[in-house]
Amino acid sequence: MIDIINVLYIDPGTGGMLFTVLFGVFSVAVFSLRALIIRMKYRVSGESSKVSSKKIPIAIHCEHKRYWNIFEPILDEFEKKQQKIVYLTGSEDDPVFQKDYKYIKPEFIGEGNKAFSKLNLLNACVLLSTTPSLDVFQWKRSKDVDCYIHIMHAAKDITMYRMYGTDHYDAFILSGELQVKQIRQMEEMRGIKPRDYEICGVPYLDEMKKRVENAEPVPSHERTVLLAPSWGESGILSRFGGKFIDALISTGYKIIVRPHPQSFVSEKDMLDKLMSAYNDPSKVEWNSDTDNFDVLMRSDVLISDYSGVMFEFAMVFDKPVIYTDTKFDPRPYDADWIEETPWTFSILPELGPKLSEENADKIKDLIDKSIDDSQFKEGREKARKDIWANIGESAKRSADFIIKKYKETSAKKSKAPVKAKKGAAK
After folding, report:
1. What torsion do the CA atoms of 8, 14, 20, 21 make, to the nearest 10 degrees?
2. What is the per-residue pLDDT across 357-400, written as a single tens digit (0 to 9) for each?
3. Judgement on whether residues 227 and 365 belong to the same structural domain of the protein
4. Cα dihedral angle (27, 265, 303, 359), rounded to 10 degrees?
5. Other C-beta atoms lying within 10 Å of the C-beta of residue 387
6. Which of 59, 201, 403, 411 is the S-S candidate for 390 at Cβ 3.0 to 4.6 Å?
7. What is this structure's pTM?
8. What is the predicted pLDDT for the residue at 418?
């Protein structure tokens, strides 16, 4: 009997991974069925996407206007090159509609499943997107799109996406060499044919750097602390609620809390309770600006967990961060497949001190140390070298790579043999 139990025993780690995989398979089945129903509806009703009837040379998909900063520098480069682009956005008030572009054609494709149903029928040579989980959930690869290119929306590990987040992309615009290593590791583990990539840098960080250099000096002000967590169970607000907010208020410094945009969607109840409990603007300022430049500019130190905003703050604004031990659970992420600690976490001790429940009562000392200690300035320089290549050239290199893939794809299609139609004379 004991032998049978030993045979059937699965250790907690393996069990957790099996549960994650099974949940993923179930989710894929549900979303695939839903996507099929929506696609059939569009086929039958004739409501297929306007942009799918004629082959588009280069298309860009922006899931939400909050990613405008990712694409604007690249679109500006395309405009300079007089390269026609179709920009498909999920936000009706996307800033692209305010731009006076001549060669960029913006189109609102709806939100949620309506947007995905159109993307699933898209007809394009190349599609650029920052949205992960292509061909995993609702968003399916269109048989009429020849090349999907992924660009990240933060300078960090590419394995920090949910599991299988980039498996079905054909090419990548990357910001540093470490991402290349991670992609190759995932390809080998999952039997994926090596895909093309270009280390271009981070276009939106380049633009932010220009803004910092051209901005007016920040007026003298009281020491300002920005709490900007990620979202999900491992995020600061989910794990600790108002505990950290109370500790920050006790410092006497100006406190700004900027929740992750996804928190307003996925964690609305939790966020509503916190915002209601801490509704005195003289103690806590809640920030949800689409453009985070102003709030980053006027803050002296940033506290976060594993949100990409930490690296913007450290590398672009050259200011210190304080990171929290949120006991990040890697199991839902691609990072769980790789033994090494993600760079996103291994670099943190070099950017600032660690905040935990144990030393939360000394938060004021940590804030002062992070600002005054010169060692963290050296760490910020190391981070730039690790993850931010080709500073000042990222947008141009990105546009050049996209055009290169378009030309390669077009050349392959033109050389491909034409299939004879059924019933055609031989």
Report:
1. -80
2. 788 789 999 999 999 888 899 999 999 999 999 999 999 999 99
3. yes
4. -70
5. 25
6. 201
7. 0.80
8. 55
pLDDT, average across residues 196-203: 98
Assigned domain for 255 exists: yes
Q: Where in the sequence is the domain holding 59, given as residue range(s)?
A: 44-202+391-411
- Cα torsion 399, 401, 404, 410 to 10°: value is -80
Structure tokens at 322: 């304080």
Mean pLDDT, rounded, for 274-294: 93
Q: How many domains does the chain have?
A: 2
Encoded tokens for 62: 């922006």
Query: Mind spelling out the 3-state secondary structure of 125-158?
Result: EEEEECCCCCCCCCCCCCCCEEEEEEECCCCCCH
Q: In this structure, are 53 and 162 located in the same domain? A: yes
**Same domain (yes/no): 72, 183:** yes
Token pair for 296 = 């980053």
d(CA 404, CA 171): 11
Based on the number of CB atoms within 10 Å of its own CB, is 293 exposed (0-12), middle (13-18) or buried (19 or more)? middle
Query: For residue 357, how far is the Cα from the chain centroid?
Result: 28
Q: Are 132 and 153 in contact (CB under 8 A)?
A: no
CATH of the domain at 229: 3.40.50.2000
CA dihedral of residues 182, 187, 193, 197 (deg, nearest 10): -20
